[in-house]
């Protein structure tokens, strides 16, 4: 598979014959399904790809807290409030595991935050859309966490050990997130006509952005071929998008919702749905920083960083004081 001559950001995927013995040994281990661990030799491109993907993933988790956090104080019942609070806290935890996994590749947490705040590092396009009603919260759990699981289950088999292990725990929590979202919507669609309409409206607004979460179509995906050769990714963007549509449409039918896609049609021959093309112009516009909430999200993250400066300074001062004390007592003992 690694021998396919597909153009990627590293020009193209090279065959084993073109690699020097060290790199060939690395690729053979990856092909054999062995995990690569932090202190082991790895190609620089492999390291950089992982830092890019894992840090973007971590940023997505913590930026993803913002649209839902917006509804914690407005949840309709105490039970829903407690569930949402737990979910939003889980996302912070996911961010932490992922930042730790990225740090094992030699990048510091401060560098990653700097890249997020300067706009150099991306985070998932999905979090640049507003949460207008309570139905948006159920819909995010169902669709956004559902899409995240579809993408992240294969990442549990990623060739890089720390990322793959972080994903195992994250996937368990994400499946709770998805079920709580679906449960909230089931309750609403059994409610008043206004509640049902609210769910359909949220579904209409989140359907296409959820499909965009899987990234551009395969022919426009610059990193996929090399990432799949390195077994960082196991599936292409379009493969996962198709699986998501096939899984989600029956769930929408169960909720008696109409999928907002006139081209959606069951295709008996392929055993899956045919569906319309997402608006890729909108997608590229959002990831370029021009979505409805990009500025708001980044400003919230930067404010949190600035507001936390006194705390980070306090921690550093305390750590320095402890280090000085240890040095002084070592000198005294000599
Ligand atoms: N949002 C923002 N940027 C995206 C994107 C999206 N939905 N999809 C692709 N891109 C970016 C890529 O990062 C890349 O930009 P870069 O070169 O500046 O990094 C460019 O578009 C080209 O896309 P590729 O298909 O070539 O990129 P990848 O091979 O990296 O594939 C991916 C994109 C499928 C998103 C992959 O990076 C991936 O699987 N990442 C890990 C999962 C992840 O980040 N999930 C975030 C979802 S939200 C979440 O998990 C929170 C949960 O609580 C819901």
Description of the molecule:
This is Ring-1,2-phenylacetyl-CoA epoxidase subunit PaaA. Pfam families: PaaA_PaaC. It comes from Rhizobium leucaenae. The structure is a single chain. This protein is an all-alpha fold. It folds into 2 domains: 276 residues, Up-down Bundle (Ferritin), CATH 1.20.1260.10; 41 residues. Helix content is 65%, strand content 3%. The chain contains 13 helices and 4 strands. The strands form 2 sheets. Strands 1-2 form a two-stranded antiparallel ribbon. It has a two-stranded antiparallel sheet with strand order 3-4. Strand 3 and strand 4 form a beta hairpin. Helix 4 runs antiparallel to helix 7. It starts with 6 loop residues before the first strand and ends with a helix. The N terminus is likely disordered.
């Amino acid at each position: 598979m690694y021998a396919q001559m597909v153009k990627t950001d590293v020009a193209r995927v090279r065959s084993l014959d073109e690699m020097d013995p060290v790199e060939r040994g690395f690729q053979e281990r990856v092909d054999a399904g062995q995990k690569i661990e932090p202190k082991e030799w790895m190609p620089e491109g492999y390291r950089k790809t992982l830092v890019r993907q894992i840090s973007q993933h971590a940023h997505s988790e913590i930026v993803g807290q913002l649209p839902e956090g917006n509804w914690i104080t407005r949840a309709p019942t105490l039970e829903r409030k407690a569930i949402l609070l737990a979910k939003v806290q889980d996302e912070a935890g996911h961010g932490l595991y992922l930042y730790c996994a990225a740090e094992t590749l030699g990048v510091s947490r401060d560098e990653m935050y700097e890249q997020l705040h300067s706009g150099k590092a991306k985070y998932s396009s999905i979090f640049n859309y507003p949460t207008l009603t309570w139905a948006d919260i159920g819909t995010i759990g169902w669709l956004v966490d559902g899409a995240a699981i579809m993408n992240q289950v294969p990442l549990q088999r990623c060739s890089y050990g720390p990322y793959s292990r972080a994903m195992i725990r994250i996937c368990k929590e994400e499946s709770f997130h998805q079920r709580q979202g679906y449960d909230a919507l089931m309750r609403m669609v059994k409610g008043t006509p206004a509640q049902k309409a609210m769910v359909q409206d949220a579904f209409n607004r989140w359907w296409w952005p959820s499909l965009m979460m899987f990234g551009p179509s395969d022919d426009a995906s610059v990193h996929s071929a090399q990432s799949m050769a390195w077994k960082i990714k196991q599936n292409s963007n379009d493969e996962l998008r198709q699986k998501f549509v096939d899984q989600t449409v029956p769930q929408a039918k169960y909720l008696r919702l109409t999928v907002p896609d006139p081209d959606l049609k069951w295709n008996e021959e392929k055993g899956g749905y045919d569906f319309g093309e997402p608006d890729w112009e909108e997608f590229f516009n959002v990831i370029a920083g021009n979505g409805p909430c990009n500025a708001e999200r980044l400003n919230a993250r930067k404010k949190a960083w600035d507001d936390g400066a006194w705390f980070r300074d306090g921690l550093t001062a305390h750590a320095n004081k402890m280090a000085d004390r240890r040095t002084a007592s070592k000198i005294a003992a000599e």
